[in-house]
Description:
The chain is of the alpha/beta class. 41% of the residues lie in helices and 17% in strands. It has 8 helices and 7 strands.
Amino acid sequence: xxxxxxKDREEVIANIERAANGGELNVxxxxxxxxxxxEQSSEIIDNYVKKRGTAGFRTKSFVARQxxxxxxxxxxxxxxxxxxxxxxxxxxxxxxxxxHFSPLDNTVVRHFVRSLGKKRINIVSQDTNFAMxxxxxxxxxYADIIPIANNHRYxxxxxxxxxxxxxxxxxxxxxxxEQEMWFNYRKPRPLKRGAxxxxxxxxxxxxxxxVEMRDLDEVDTDGFYKVKYVFHILETLxxxxxxxxxENSLEMSRRDFELKKQAYERVYGKKLDYTFEDSDIAGxxxxxxx
Length: 290
C-alpha cells in the first residue's frame, strides 16, 4: 500500500535523490509533515507522560492495538520471515532495529513479533507524528508508540525509565536508527547511536533486522507496483559489560550497519553505493515509466 498521490511520492523521490547524491543520508525528505514549536512539542510530551498510566489511555491503546493488528495482517499476508535462529535464546526484552522506508513498515516488525507470540511491539517515533490528525493520528498516539524529542529533561527523566520498564517486562522496542523515513528506499543508511546507547545503558540486546522489498507485477497506484516484504533477522548484538556506554554504542552501531550492508548486498546482488538509481525505490516504475 502506498500513501499519497503520484506527484507527492515523486516529489519525495526527488528529495531522496538530491540527499543521497549529496551524502546527506539521514535528513528529512518527506513533505507536509507537521512542524512543532518547542512549546507544542513539550505539550505533546507532557500529555503522553501524564496520561500513559491512566485507564482511559490503556483502553484507547487496546483499541488502537487491535486496529493496528488488523492492518498488519492485511499488509503482511505474503511477508516472509527469515533468520529466526538468530533471535536471542532467552525471552528477555530487546531493542529491534530495522530500515525505515514507510509509515507502514512497522507492520512488518509487528507481524514478526506477533509470530513469536508477543502481544505488542513498542515503537519509538518522533514527537511530530503525534500531531497527525484522524485515524492515523489516533494510531500514532495510542498504538504502543513512544514519543522521542529533542528534550533533555524528558529523555533522562521519562523516556529512559519508560524503555527500562518495558524491557524489564520482556517486551520488544522498535527503534529506527536511520532517524528519518525515506519512502521505499532499498538501501540501508548510516545509523545514529541512540538505540545502542539505550541498549548499553539498560544492558539489553539489539536484534538487527533488515526488510527486503521485492517488486511484484501487480499495479498498486499510478506509477507504482505492489511490493512484497521479506523480513531478515540478521544477528543479536549484546553490550560488552567491560566497555563504557559510548564504546558499546560505537561498536554495536558499527556492527549493525555492517550486518544491514551485508544483507542488502546479498539480497539485491549489488555493492552498496549511494549514487541514486531509479531501482533504489521499491515498486517505482521510474522516471521513464508509464
